[in-house]
Amino acid sequence: MALRICFLTAEMAPFAKAGGLADVSGALLRYLHAAGHDVRLFMPFHASIAALPLERHAVGFLAGIDARIGTRTYRYSVHTARLPGTDAFAYLVDCPEVFGGESIYTASPDEYRRYLLLTHAAFQCCQHMAFAPQILHANDWHTAVAPLWLRTIYRWDKLFAATRSVLTIHNLGYQGIVGAEAAPEVLGGADRMLLHQDELRAGQINLLRLGLLYADLLTTVSPSYAREIQGAEYGAGLDDTLRARSGALVGILNGVDYQEWDPRNDRLLPRHYGANQLGVKAALKEELLARLGLASGTRRPLVGMITRLAAQKGIDLLLEALPQMLATQDFSLAVLGSGDAAYERFFAGLARAHPGRVAFHQGYSEELAHWIEAGSDMFLMPSRYEPCGLNQMYSLRYGTVPIVRRTGGLADSVQPFDAGSGSGTGIVFNDYDPQAVRWALTTAFDLYRRPGTWRRLVQNGMSQDFSWQRRVQDYVAAYERLLA
Ligand code: ADP
Ligand code: GLC
Question: Is the per-residue pLDDT at 333 higher than 80?
Protein backbone atom coordinates (compact mmCIF):
# COMPACT_ATOMS: atom_id res chain seq x y z
CA MET A 1 0.00 0.00 0.00
CA ALA A 2 1.40 3.41 -0.93
CA LEU A 3 1.40 5.62 2.14
CA ARG A 4 1.01 9.37 2.51
CA ILE A 5 3.70 10.61 4.88
CA CYS A 6 4.39 14.09 6.19
CA PHE A 7 8.00 14.17 7.46
CA LEU A 8 9.41 17.00 9.58
CA THR A 9 13.11 17.54 10.08
CA ALA A 10 15.53 20.31 11.02
CA GLU A 11 18.24 19.16 8.60
CA MET A 12 18.62 17.00 5.53
CA ALA A 13 21.71 16.11 3.46
CA PRO A 14 22.86 17.41 1.09
CA PHE A 15 20.91 20.63 1.62
CA ALA A 16 21.82 21.33 5.24
CA LYS A 17 23.77 19.04 7.52
CA ALA A 18 25.13 19.29 11.04
CA GLY A 19 25.16 15.58 11.84
CA GLY A 20 23.55 12.21 11.30
CA LEU A 21 19.96 13.49 11.36
CA ALA A 22 20.65 15.02 7.96
CA ASP A 23 21.95 11.77 6.47
CA VAL A 24 19.00 9.83 7.86
CA SER A 25 16.39 12.35 6.69
CA GLY A 26 17.82 12.43 3.17
CA ALA A 27 18.00 8.66 2.90
CA LEU A 28 14.51 8.12 4.30
CA LEU A 29 13.04 10.63 1.87
CA ARG A 30 14.82 9.07 -1.07
CA TYR A 31 14.08 5.44 -0.22
CA LEU A 32 10.47 5.95 0.87
CA HIS A 33 9.90 7.85 -2.36
CA ALA A 34 11.59 5.11 -4.41
CA ALA A 35 9.35 2.52 -2.72
CA GLY A 36 6.32 4.39 -4.09
CA HIS A 37 5.24 6.31 -0.98
CA ASP A 38 4.08 9.91 -1.16
CA VAL A 39 6.50 11.66 1.24
CA ARG A 40 6.25 15.38 1.82
CA LEU A 41 9.37 16.41 3.72
CA PHE A 42 9.33 19.80 5.43
CA MET A 43 12.48 21.51 6.61
CA PRO A 44 13.63 25.09 7.12
CA PHE A 45 15.00 27.01 4.17
CA HIS A 46 18.19 27.65 6.16
CA ALA A 47 20.19 30.63 4.90
CA SER A 48 23.00 28.25 3.85
CA ILE A 49 20.65 26.53 1.39
CA ALA A 50 20.19 29.73 -0.60
CA ALA A 51 23.87 29.59 -1.58
CA LEU A 52 23.67 26.07 -3.02
CA PRO A 53 23.45 25.48 -6.77
CA LEU A 54 20.01 23.95 -6.45
CA GLU A 55 17.10 24.11 -8.81
CA ARG A 56 14.40 25.55 -6.60
CA HIS A 57 10.84 26.48 -7.35
CA ALA A 58 8.65 28.79 -5.36
CA VAL A 59 5.29 27.12 -4.87
CA GLY A 60 2.72 29.66 -6.05
CA PHE A 61 -0.09 28.68 -3.73
CA LEU A 62 2.23 28.31 -0.72
CA ALA A 63 3.44 31.92 -0.71
CA GLY A 64 2.84 34.57 1.91
CA ILE A 65 1.14 32.28 4.43
CA ASP A 66 0.68 33.59 7.96
CA ALA A 67 1.29 31.45 11.01
CA ARG A 68 0.16 32.84 14.31
CA ILE A 69 2.26 31.57 17.20
CA GLY A 70 1.47 33.02 20.61
CA THR A 71 1.12 36.73 20.11
CA ARG A 72 3.26 36.91 16.98
CA THR A 73 2.49 36.31 13.35
CA TYR A 74 5.13 34.96 10.98
CA ARG A 75 4.79 35.12 7.21
CA TYR A 76 6.48 32.40 5.19
CA SER A 77 6.63 30.93 1.70
CA VAL A 78 7.58 27.51 0.47
CA HIS A 79 10.10 26.37 -2.16
CA THR A 80 10.56 22.88 -3.48
CA ALA A 81 13.86 21.34 -4.51
CA ARG A 82 14.70 17.85 -5.70
CA LEU A 83 17.27 15.73 -3.99
CA PRO A 84 20.17 15.62 -6.47
CA GLY A 85 19.78 12.82 -8.97
CA THR A 86 16.33 11.76 -7.79
CA ASP A 87 12.65 12.50 -8.28
CA ALA A 88 12.13 13.06 -4.57
CA PHE A 89 11.69 16.63 -3.48
CA ALA A 90 11.57 18.54 -0.24
CA TYR A 91 9.46 21.48 0.89
CA LEU A 92 11.66 24.27 2.20
CA VAL A 93 9.94 26.69 4.54
CA ASP A 94 11.26 30.16 3.85
CA CYS A 95 11.01 32.80 6.54
CA PRO A 96 14.21 34.90 6.57
CA GLU A 97 13.23 36.58 9.81
CA VAL A 98 13.48 33.18 11.53
CA PHE A 99 15.75 30.95 9.43
CA GLY A 100 18.04 33.66 8.10
CA GLY A 101 20.97 33.04 10.48
CA GLU A 102 24.26 31.67 9.21
CA SER A 103 24.16 28.32 10.99
CA ILE A 104 21.60 25.53 11.11
CA TYR A 105 21.40 25.64 14.88
CA THR A 106 21.77 28.64 17.13
CA ALA A 107 22.40 28.72 20.84
CA SER A 108 19.72 31.36 21.12
CA PRO A 109 17.02 30.88 23.77
CA ASP A 110 14.31 31.51 21.19
CA GLU A 111 15.53 28.83 18.80
CA TYR A 112 12.41 26.82 19.60
CA ARG A 113 10.36 29.43 17.71
CA ARG A 114 12.00 28.33 14.47
CA TYR A 115 10.71 24.86 14.95
CA LEU A 116 7.28 25.79 16.17
CA LEU A 117 7.03 27.71 12.91
CA LEU A 118 8.29 24.75 10.89
CA THR A 119 5.74 22.50 12.54
CA HIS A 120 2.86 24.90 11.95
CA ALA A 121 3.97 25.32 8.36
CA ALA A 122 3.86 21.57 7.79
CA PHE A 123 0.27 21.35 9.05
CA GLN A 124 -0.82 24.44 7.15
CA CYS A 125 0.79 23.33 3.90
CA CYS A 126 -0.95 19.94 4.17
CA GLN A 127 -4.18 21.92 4.45
CA HIS A 128 -3.36 24.12 1.45
CA MET A 129 -2.40 21.06 -0.60
CA ALA A 130 -5.41 19.08 0.66
CA PHE A 131 -2.83 16.43 1.56
CA ALA A 132 -4.20 14.06 4.21
CA PRO A 133 -1.13 12.35 5.69
CA GLN A 134 -1.63 8.90 7.13
CA ILE A 135 1.66 9.31 8.97
CA LEU A 136 2.99 12.47 10.56
CA HIS A 137 6.65 11.74 11.28
CA ALA A 138 8.52 14.16 13.54
CA ASN A 139 12.21 14.01 14.47
CA ASP A 140 13.94 15.01 17.70
CA TRP A 141 12.91 17.86 20.00
CA HIS A 142 12.62 20.34 17.14
CA THR A 143 9.32 19.05 15.84
CA ALA A 144 8.26 16.97 18.85
CA VAL A 145 5.17 19.13 19.44
CA ALA A 146 3.61 17.85 16.22
CA PRO A 147 1.88 14.83 17.85
CA LEU A 148 0.37 17.10 20.51
CA TRP A 149 -0.86 19.59 17.92
CA LEU A 150 -2.41 16.76 15.92
CA ARG A 151 -4.54 16.02 19.00
CA THR A 152 -5.28 19.65 19.85
CA ILE A 153 -4.79 22.63 17.53
CA TYR A 154 -5.41 20.70 14.30
CA ARG A 155 -7.91 18.23 15.66
CA TRP A 156 -10.88 20.11 14.17
CA ASP A 157 -9.67 19.47 10.63
CA LYS A 158 -11.08 16.26 9.10
CA LEU A 159 -8.01 16.18 6.86
CA PHE A 160 -6.04 14.81 9.82
CA ALA A 161 -8.77 12.56 11.23
CA ALA A 162 -6.95 9.35 10.27
CA THR A 163 -3.40 10.66 10.78
CA ARG A 164 -1.17 8.75 13.22
CA SER A 165 1.98 10.31 14.63
CA VAL A 166 5.53 9.01 14.89
CA LEU A 167 8.43 10.60 16.73
CA THR A 168 11.96 9.41 16.06
CA ILE A 169 14.48 10.07 18.81
CA HIS A 170 17.88 10.62 17.26
CA ASN A 171 19.42 12.00 20.39
CA LEU A 172 17.95 12.22 23.87
CA GLY A 173 20.69 14.62 24.91
CA TYR A 174 18.96 17.56 23.22
CA GLN A 175 15.49 18.16 24.60
CA GLY A 176 14.33 21.65 23.72
CA ILE A 177 13.74 22.92 27.25
CA VAL A 178 11.97 26.28 27.21
CA GLY A 179 10.60 28.56 29.91
CA ALA A 180 7.00 28.09 31.05
CA GLU A 181 6.21 31.51 29.57
CA ALA A 182 6.32 29.80 26.17
CA ALA A 183 3.14 27.90 27.09
CA PRO A 184 0.83 30.00 24.88
CA GLU A 185 3.08 29.38 21.88
CA VAL A 186 3.40 25.68 22.59
CA LEU A 187 -0.24 25.10 23.40
CA GLY A 188 -1.97 27.44 20.98
CA GLY A 189 -4.98 27.62 23.29
CA ALA A 190 -5.01 23.96 24.36
CA ASP A 191 -5.34 22.96 28.01
CA ARG A 192 -2.29 23.57 30.23
CA MET A 193 -2.99 20.21 31.86
CA LEU A 194 -1.55 18.62 28.73
CA LEU A 195 1.88 19.83 29.77
CA HIS A 196 4.02 17.86 32.21
CA GLN A 197 2.91 19.35 35.52
CA ASP A 198 6.10 18.83 37.54
CA GLU A 199 8.12 20.56 34.86
CA LEU A 200 5.63 23.37 34.62
CA ARG A 201 5.88 23.91 38.39
CA ALA A 202 9.64 24.12 37.93
CA GLY A 203 9.03 26.84 35.32
CA GLN A 204 9.85 24.70 32.28
CA ILE A 205 8.40 22.97 29.26
CA ASN A 206 10.37 20.11 27.75
CA LEU A 207 9.39 19.88 24.10
CA LEU A 208 10.93 16.45 23.59
CA ARG A 209 8.96 15.06 26.53
CA LEU A 210 5.74 16.29 24.93
CA GLY A 211 6.59 14.20 21.90
CA LEU A 212 7.33 11.18 24.07
CA LEU A 213 3.97 11.60 25.77
CA TYR A 214 1.76 12.17 22.74
CA ALA A 215 3.23 10.39 19.70
CA ASP A 216 1.35 7.23 18.70
CA LEU A 217 4.67 5.54 17.96
CA LEU A 218 8.15 6.28 19.25
CA THR A 219 11.17 5.04 17.40
CA THR A 220 14.83 5.42 18.07
CA VAL A 221 17.75 4.70 15.85
CA SER A 222 19.04 1.41 17.27
CA PRO A 223 17.58 -1.45 19.30
CA SER A 224 20.22 -1.10 22.03
CA TYR A 225 19.53 2.60 22.50
CA ALA A 226 15.81 1.82 22.73
CA ARG A 227 16.62 -0.39 25.74
CA GLU A 228 19.25 1.87 27.26
CA ILE A 229 17.12 5.01 27.39
CA GLN A 230 14.55 3.29 29.56
CA GLY A 231 17.06 3.31 32.41
CA ALA A 232 18.46 6.18 34.48
CA GLU A 233 22.02 6.01 33.11
CA TYR A 234 21.04 6.79 29.51
CA GLY A 235 17.55 8.19 30.03
CA ALA A 236 18.70 11.83 30.33
CA GLY A 237 15.94 12.48 32.87
CA LEU A 238 13.22 11.19 30.54
CA ASP A 239 13.47 7.49 31.39
CA ASP A 240 10.30 7.53 33.48
CA THR A 241 8.26 8.70 30.50
CA LEU A 242 10.06 6.28 28.21
CA ARG A 243 9.35 3.35 30.53
CA ALA A 244 5.71 4.36 30.69
CA ARG A 245 5.62 4.34 26.87
CA SER A 246 7.79 1.28 26.36
CA GLY A 247 5.00 -0.54 24.51
CA ALA A 248 5.06 2.19 21.87
CA LEU A 249 8.87 2.37 21.54
CA VAL A 250 10.86 0.47 18.90
CA GLY A 251 14.51 0.64 17.82
CA ILE A 252 15.25 0.62 14.09
CA LEU A 253 18.95 0.78 13.25
CA ASN A 254 19.89 3.52 10.81
CA GLY A 255 21.04 2.46 7.38
CA VAL A 256 23.91 3.58 5.22
CA ASP A 257 23.41 5.39 1.96
CA TYR A 258 25.87 3.39 -0.13
CA GLN A 259 25.38 5.73 -3.08
CA GLU A 260 27.23 8.29 -0.97
CA TRP A 261 29.39 6.10 1.24
CA ASP A 262 31.02 3.24 -0.63
CA PRO A 263 34.68 3.20 -1.74
CA ARG A 264 33.64 1.37 -4.92
CA ASN A 265 31.82 4.45 -6.20
CA ASP A 266 32.66 7.38 -3.90
CA ARG A 267 32.25 10.64 -5.88
CA LEU A 268 34.75 12.45 -3.71
CA LEU A 269 37.61 9.99 -4.20
CA PRO A 270 39.91 9.94 -7.21
CA ARG A 271 40.23 6.12 -7.22
CA HIS A 272 37.94 3.36 -6.11
CA TYR A 273 38.39 0.04 -4.38
CA GLY A 274 36.59 -3.03 -3.12
CA ALA A 275 37.59 -5.77 -0.70
CA ASN A 276 40.11 -7.22 -3.16
CA GLN A 277 41.76 -3.94 -4.12
CA LEU A 278 43.28 -2.96 -0.80
CA GLY A 279 46.37 -1.70 -2.65
CA VAL A 280 44.24 1.24 -3.79
CA LYS A 281 43.29 1.93 -0.19
CA ALA A 282 46.98 1.91 0.78
CA ALA A 283 47.74 4.43 -1.99
CA LEU A 284 44.88 6.68 -0.83
CA LYS A 285 46.33 6.52 2.67
CA GLU A 286 49.67 7.82 1.39
CA GLU A 287 47.92 10.69 -0.41
CA LEU A 288 45.91 11.53 2.67
CA LEU A 289 49.03 11.56 4.86
CA ALA A 290 50.74 13.90 2.39
CA ARG A 291 47.72 16.15 2.20
CA LEU A 292 47.50 16.42 5.99
CA GLY A 293 51.23 16.99 6.36
CA LEU A 294 51.72 13.67 8.15
CA ALA A 295 54.81 11.50 7.72
CA SER A 296 54.46 8.72 5.19
CA GLY A 297 54.49 5.19 6.54
CA THR A 298 52.54 2.16 5.44
CA ARG A 299 53.47 0.21 8.54
CA ARG A 300 52.40 2.90 10.96
CA PRO A 301 48.63 2.65 11.56
CA LEU A 302 46.57 5.76 10.88
CA VAL A 303 43.64 6.30 13.22
CA GLY A 304 40.83 8.52 11.89
CA MET A 305 38.08 10.47 13.64
CA ILE A 306 35.25 12.56 12.17
CA THR A 307 32.99 13.95 14.82
CA ARG A 308 31.11 16.71 16.48
CA LEU A 309 33.39 17.61 19.38
CA ALA A 310 30.82 17.10 22.11
CA ALA A 311 30.91 15.25 25.43
CA GLN A 312 28.57 12.59 23.94
CA LYS A 313 31.40 11.46 21.68
CA GLY A 314 33.66 10.37 24.54
CA ILE A 315 36.32 13.01 23.97
CA ASP A 316 36.93 13.23 27.73
CA LEU A 317 38.43 9.74 27.62
CA LEU A 318 40.84 10.84 24.92
CA LEU A 319 42.10 13.83 26.92
CA GLU A 320 43.75 11.29 29.15
CA ALA A 321 44.34 8.33 26.83
CA LEU A 322 45.79 9.92 23.70
CA PRO A 323 48.78 11.89 25.03
CA GLN A 324 50.04 8.78 26.79
CA MET A 325 49.38 6.51 23.80
CA LEU A 326 51.18 8.90 21.45
CA ALA A 327 54.17 8.91 23.76
CA THR A 328 54.46 5.13 23.87
CA GLN A 329 53.03 3.75 20.61
CA ASP A 330 53.82 4.31 16.97
CA PHE A 331 50.67 5.48 15.19
CA SER A 332 49.27 8.60 13.54
CA LEU A 333 46.00 10.35 14.03
CA ALA A 334 43.77 12.38 11.68
CA VAL A 335 40.91 14.25 13.32
CA LEU A 336 38.18 16.25 11.58
CA GLY A 337 35.67 18.02 13.77
CA SER A 338 34.42 21.07 15.53
CA GLY A 339 32.43 21.86 18.61
CA ASP A 340 33.40 22.56 22.23
CA ALA A 341 36.27 25.00 22.38
CA ALA A 342 38.11 22.99 25.06
CA TYR A 343 38.13 19.89 22.84
CA GLU A 344 39.23 21.93 19.84
CA ARG A 345 42.14 23.27 21.89
CA PHE A 346 43.04 19.76 22.99
CA PHE A 347 43.34 18.41 19.45
CA ALA A 348 45.10 21.54 18.21
CA GLY A 349 47.59 21.07 21.06
CA LEU A 350 48.14 17.41 20.21
CA ALA A 351 48.85 18.35 16.60
CA ARG A 352 51.43 20.93 17.73
CA ALA A 353 53.05 18.47 20.13
CA HIS A 354 53.28 15.71 17.51
CA PRO A 355 53.97 17.30 14.14
CA GLY A 356 53.99 14.73 11.37
CA ARG A 357 51.90 12.33 13.45
CA VAL A 358 48.75 14.19 14.44
CA ALA A 359 46.63 16.32 12.12
CA PHE A 360 43.60 18.25 13.30
CA HIS A 361 41.29 19.88 10.81
CA GLN A 362 38.96 22.11 12.73
CA GLY A 363 35.72 22.68 10.88
CA TYR A 364 33.38 20.85 8.61
CA SER A 365 34.44 19.22 5.36
CA GLU A 366 32.40 16.68 3.47
CA GLU A 367 35.31 15.95 1.17
CA LEU A 368 37.89 15.40 3.90
CA ALA A 369 35.40 13.18 5.72
CA HIS A 370 35.35 10.82 2.74
CA TRP A 371 39.14 10.90 2.50
CA ILE A 372 39.58 10.07 6.17
CA GLU A 373 37.13 7.17 5.85
CA ALA A 374 39.10 5.82 2.89
CA GLY A 375 42.66 6.57 3.95
CA SER A 376 42.62 5.59 7.62
CA ASP A 377 43.35 2.10 8.89
CA MET A 378 41.13 2.43 11.96
CA PHE A 379 38.30 4.67 13.06
CA LEU A 380 37.90 5.66 16.70
CA MET A 381 34.46 6.25 18.26
CA PRO A 382 34.66 5.98 22.05
CA SER A 383 31.19 7.49 22.61
CA ARG A 384 29.73 7.95 26.05
CA TYR A 385 26.39 7.26 24.42
CA GLU A 386 25.50 6.78 20.76
CA PRO A 387 21.89 6.51 19.57
CA CYS A 388 23.13 4.95 16.35
CA GLY A 389 26.24 6.52 14.88
CA LEU A 390 26.93 6.40 11.18
CA ASN A 391 30.69 6.67 10.81
CA GLN A 392 31.34 3.23 12.30
CA MET A 393 29.10 1.75 9.60
CA TYR A 394 30.74 3.88 6.90
CA SER A 395 34.12 2.74 8.22
CA LEU A 396 33.19 -0.93 7.88
CA ARG A 397 32.48 -0.48 4.18
CA TYR A 398 35.75 1.45 3.67
CA GLY A 399 37.82 -1.29 5.29
CA THR A 400 38.66 1.07 8.15
CA VAL A 401 38.40 -1.00 11.31
CA PRO A 402 36.06 0.61 13.86
CA ILE A 403 37.23 0.88 17.46
CA VAL A 404 34.08 1.58 19.46
CA ARG A 405 32.58 1.53 22.89
CA ARG A 406 29.81 -1.05 23.36
CA THR A 407 26.84 1.30 23.54
CA GLY A 408 23.73 2.07 21.47
CA GLY A 409 24.10 1.67 17.75
CA LEU A 410 27.83 1.02 18.07
CA ALA A 411 27.03 -2.20 19.94
CA ASP A 412 24.45 -3.12 17.31
CA SER A 413 26.66 -2.61 14.27
CA VAL A 414 30.19 -3.70 15.25
CA GLN A 415 30.97 -7.28 16.33
CA PRO A 416 34.11 -7.79 18.41
CA PHE A 417 36.85 -9.50 16.43
CA ASP A 418 37.94 -12.91 17.65
CA ALA A 419 41.40 -13.70 16.31
CA GLY A 420 40.95 -17.43 17.02
CA SER A 421 37.93 -17.95 14.82
CA GLY A 422 38.57 -14.95 12.55
CA SER A 423 35.04 -13.68 13.09
CA GLY A 424 34.02 -10.13 13.95
CA THR A 425 34.36 -6.69 12.43
CA GLY A 426 35.97 -4.34 14.94
CA ILE A 427 37.44 -3.69 18.36
CA VAL A 428 34.81 -3.20 21.04
CA PHE A 429 35.42 -2.05 24.61
CA ASN A 430 32.94 -1.84 27.47
CA ASP A 431 33.91 0.61 30.14
CA TYR A 432 33.75 4.37 29.88
CA ASP A 433 37.32 4.68 31.04
CA PRO A 434 40.62 5.87 29.51
CA GLN A 435 42.23 2.55 30.38
CA ALA A 436 39.66 0.78 28.18
CA VAL A 437 40.48 3.07 25.25
CA ARG A 438 44.15 2.31 25.70
CA TRP A 439 43.40 -1.41 25.70
CA ALA A 440 41.30 -1.09 22.53
CA LEU A 441 43.93 0.91 20.63
CA THR A 442 46.74 -1.40 21.73
CA THR A 443 44.71 -4.43 20.66
CA ALA A 444 44.09 -2.84 17.27
CA PHE A 445 47.78 -2.00 16.81
CA ASP A 446 48.79 -5.61 17.71
CA LEU A 447 46.37 -7.01 15.14
CA TYR A 448 47.60 -4.51 12.57
CA ARG A 449 51.09 -5.96 12.86
CA ARG A 450 49.73 -9.34 11.67
CA PRO A 451 48.86 -8.64 8.02
CA GLY A 452 46.91 -11.84 7.34
CA THR A 453 44.76 -11.43 10.45
CA TRP A 454 44.29 -7.74 9.77
CA ARG A 455 43.19 -8.39 6.20
CA ARG A 456 40.61 -10.85 7.49
CA LEU A 457 39.24 -8.27 9.93
CA VAL A 458 39.13 -5.59 7.23
CA GLN A 459 37.37 -7.83 4.75
CA ASN A 460 34.84 -9.05 7.32
CA GLY A 461 33.81 -5.42 7.78
CA MET A 462 33.69 -4.65 4.09
CA SER A 463 31.23 -7.47 3.49
CA GLN A 464 28.66 -6.09 5.97
CA ASP A 465 25.45 -4.70 4.54
CA PHE A 466 23.62 -1.91 6.36
CA SER A 467 21.75 -0.66 3.34
CA TRP A 468 18.67 1.52 3.67
CA GLN A 469 16.61 -0.76 1.43
CA ARG A 470 16.07 -3.05 4.39
CA ARG A 471 15.64 -0.35 7.04
CA VAL A 472 13.02 1.45 5.04
CA GLN A 473 10.98 -1.73 5.06
CA ASP A 474 11.20 -1.70 8.85
CA TYR A 475 9.82 1.86 8.95
CA VAL A 476 7.04 1.01 6.53
CA ALA A 477 6.12 -2.08 8.56
CA ALA A 478 5.99 0.09 11.70
CA TYR A 479 3.78 2.65 9.93
CA GLU A 480 1.48 -0.10 8.71
CA ARG A 481 1.12 -1.62 12.18
CA LEU A 482 0.11 1.79 13.42
CA LEU A 483 -2.53 2.18 10.73
CA ALA A 484 -3.91 -1.37 11.03
P1 ADP B 1 25.90 12.68 15.17
O2 ADP B 1 24.66 12.82 14.38
O3 ADP B 1 25.69 12.42 16.61
O4 ADP B 1 26.85 13.81 14.96
P5 ADP B 1 26.47 10.39 13.43
O6 ADP B 1 27.60 9.42 13.46
O7 ADP B 1 25.12 9.83 13.34
O8 ADP B 1 26.67 11.36 14.67
O9 ADP B 1 26.60 11.29 12.13
C10 ADP B 1 27.58 12.23 11.94
C11 ADP B 1 27.60 12.62 10.47
O12 ADP B 1 28.14 13.91 10.35
C13 ADP B 1 28.45 11.70 9.62
O14 ADP B 1 27.95 11.67 8.31
C15 ADP B 1 29.81 12.41 9.68
O16 ADP B 1 30.62 12.07 8.59
C17 ADP B 1 29.39 13.85 9.65
N18 ADP B 1 30.31 14.78 10.28
C19 ADP B 1 30.47 15.05 11.59
N20 ADP B 1 31.40 16.01 11.79
C21 ADP B 1 31.85 16.35 10.56
C22 ADP B 1 32.82 17.28 10.10
N23 ADP B 1 33.53 18.06 10.94
N24 ADP B 1 33.01 17.38 8.76
C25 ADP B 1 32.31 16.59 7.91
N26 ADP B 1 31.40 15.70 8.29
C27 ADP B 1 31.16 15.58 9.60
C1 GLC C 1 22.06 11.67 16.36
C2 GLC C 1 22.90 10.67 17.11
C3 GLC C 1 23.56 9.65 16.22
C4 GLC C 1 22.61 9.17 15.14
C5 GLC C 1 22.04 10.35 14.37
C6 GLC C 1 21.08 9.95 13.25
O7 GLC C 1 22.65 12.88 16.13
O8 GLC C 1 23.85 11.28 17.94
O9 GLC C 1 23.99 8.56 16.99
O10 GLC C 1 23.29 8.31 14.24
O11 GLC C 1 21.35 11.18 15.24
O12 GLC C 1 20.02 9.17 13.71
Answer: yes
What is the Cα–Cα distance from 117 to 76, expressed in whole angstroms?
Answer: 9
* pLDDT at 26 exceeding the cut of 80: yes
- Is the shortest distance between the CB of 383 and ligand 2 below 6 Å? no
How many Å apart are CA 13 and CA 81, to the nearest integer? 12
Give, in order, the Cα–Cα distances in Å from 212 to each of 160, 172, 238: 20, 11, 9
| Residue 80 DSSP one-character state | E
Which tens digit of pLDDT belongs to each residue from 139-171? 999 999 999 999 999 999 999 999 999 999 999
- Expressed in percent and rounded to 5, the helix, strand and coil fractions of the chain are 45, 20, 35
Of the given ranges (49-53, 324-328, 431-435, 437-441), which has the lowest mean pLDDT? Answer: 49-53
Mean residue pLDDT of the chain comes to 97
Q: What tens digit of pLDDT does each residue of 234-257 get? A: 999 999 999 999 999 999 999 999
Helix (H) or strand (E) holding 30, with range, is helix 20-34
Distance 226 CA to ligand 2 centre (A): 13
pLDDT recorded at residue 277: 98
315-328 helix and 341-353 helix, angle to the nearest 10 degrees? 10
> Per-residue DSSP letters for 215-264?
-SEEEES-HHHHHHTTSTTTSTT-HHHHHHTGGGEEE----B-TTTS-TT
The total of other beta-carbon atoms located within 10 Å of residue 295's CB is: 11
Between the CA atoms of 465, 467, 471 and 473, what dihedral angle is there, to the nearest 10 degrees?
A: -110
Ligand 1 residue neighbourhood (C-beta within 6 Å): 19-21, 23, 306-308, 336-338, 364-366, 369, 388-391
**Number of C-beta neighbours around residue 362 at 10 A:** 16
In eight-state DSSP terms, residue 103 is S
Omega within 30 of 0 (cis) for the link into 96:
no
- Report d(CA 152, CA 187) in Å as an integer: 8
Nearest ligand to the C-alpha atom of residue 140? 2
